[in-house]
Amino acid sequence: MTSLERKRVVVTGLGAVTPIGNTLQEYWYGLLSGRNGIGPITLFDASSHSCRIAGEVKGFDPHDYLEKKEAKRMDRFAQFAIAASKQAIADASFEINELNAEQVGIVIGNGIGGMKVMEDQQTIYLNRGPDRCSPFMVPMMIANMAAGLTAIHTGAKGPNSCVVTACAAGSNAVGDAFRLIQGGYAQAMICGGTEAAVTPLSVAGFAAARAVSTRNDDPLHACRPFDRDRDGFVMGEGAGILLLEELEHALARGAKIYAEMVGYAMTCDAYHMTSPVPGGAGATRAMLLAMKDAGLSPEQVSYINAHGTSTAANDKTETNAIKNALGDHAYKVAVSSTKSMTGHLLGGSGGIEAVATVMALANDKVPPTINLENPDPECDLDYVPHHSRDCPVNVALSNSFGFGGHNVTLAFKKYQ
């Protein structure tokens, strides 16, 4: 497809359910004020776990978006997706009806699916036998159900898909939706990521892999990307959703436009199940290819929302990748990890971080990296420590990297 054939794609709606706020405005204000959403786990008794902290969504009521009977037949990850999607549609003043339903699609990524349902049903199976398992177990558990149920509850009948690329899933979903509109396969796409994996088994699994922080006595300072005293990531949960539209379609209905999406790239390290390739070659290529796709030079980039997990393997590798992709300009770019406030939403992280990136462009404000008290000497870029910053943001990248070697970069710029 040549650039002349590509449709232009803009962001017209945003929705968020996060550990620091359950609406777009609460989330954005939380980011700018450096609000910390990490605390002791309350969703289950974590007293026997080595990791007892997480970024939990607080005060979320699914009945604000769903009938009680419907909500009961969904896992939390699907509830989050529907809530954030309905927020994004309302934010865009977008109506899905009989005339346009087949031109509105959905791509929502996640990493694990209905982990809580699976664990609960396993307990029922072991204690009460196979005949007592719920008939809704499978449709509540499978990862694609966030996208499928969101379609049911919004009426979108266009392309519908689920991306499962670990912690890159939310960003892959946004990128895939972008491509569908670019290619003329849809006029609008609901896209992003969702996750609700703060469960006994998944917390135990990540702890066994020595991937998560065990700073249980000080959860507010546990997630500290690019800091030499970091000891692992902190799990989070929630959903971030964007409504993307073909530009002419958005203009025809007088939509407000937050930003234009201009680039997308994905690469693979082909190196290791959980560790990035040393030096960050795969991440470097993702950024370079996203900029090439967008027709951008490194010198045009103002802000990077980093994957920034608060792990030694990621933070140093991503820093090196940014330097390799941007050259000397890397030291002039604002880079921040919003995971320092929300924790790591796994497959949902790319969704809320794309929302943050778009809001940075729309408001010329860069969220901070909190808890960056003792910078790692190998992490020497401008990570916007402690406090948000007012500065022109004309072009922004959002990075997501996942187990399996998945690397994704999204590129956005101010709409002109």
TrEMBL record:
Q: Does the keyword Plastid apply?
A: no
Pfam family example for this protein?
ketoacyl-synt
Q: Keywords of this protein's UniProt record, alphabetized?
A: Acyltransferase, Fatty acid biosynthesis, Fatty acid metabolism, Lipid biosynthesis, Lipid metabolism, Transferase
Q: What are the EC numbers?
A: 2.3.1.179
Alphabetized Gene3D superfamilies for the sequence = 3.40.47.10
Enzyme's top EC category: transferase
Annotated GO molecular function terms are: 3-oxoacyl-[acyl-carrier-protein] synthase activity
What reaction does this catalyse?
A: a fatty acyl-[ACP] + malonyl-[ACP] + H(+) = a 3-oxoacyl-[ACP] + holo-[ACP] + CO2; (9Z)-hexadecenoyl-[ACP] + malonyl-[ACP] + H(+) = 3-oxo-(11Z)-octadecenoyl-[ACP] + holo-[ACP] + CO2
- Does Nucleotidyltransferase show up as a keyword for this record? no
Residue ranges occupied by any Ketosynthase family 3 (KS3) domain in the UniProt entry: 6-414
Pathway assignment reads: Lipid metabolism; fatty acid biosynthesis
Q: Which InterPro entries match?
A: 3-oxoacyl-ACP_synth-2, Beta-ketoacyl_synthase, Ketoacyl_synth_AS, Ketoacyl_synth_C, Ketoacyl_synth_N, PKS_Beta-ketoAc_synthase_dom, Thiolase-like
To which protein family does this belong?
Belongs to the thiolase-like superfamily. Beta-ketoacyl-ACP synthases family.
The job of this chain, per UniProt, is described as: Involved in the type II fatty acid elongation cycle. Catalyzes the elongation of a wide range of acyl-ACP by the addition of two carbons from malonyl-ACP to an acyl acceptor. Can efficiently catalyze the conversion of palmitoleoyl-ACP (cis-hexadec-9-enoyl-ACP) to cis-vaccenoyl-ACP (cis-octadec-11-enoyl-ACP), an essential step in the thermal regulation of fatty acid composition.
Which protein is depicted? 3-oxoacyl-[acyl-carrier-protein] synthase 2
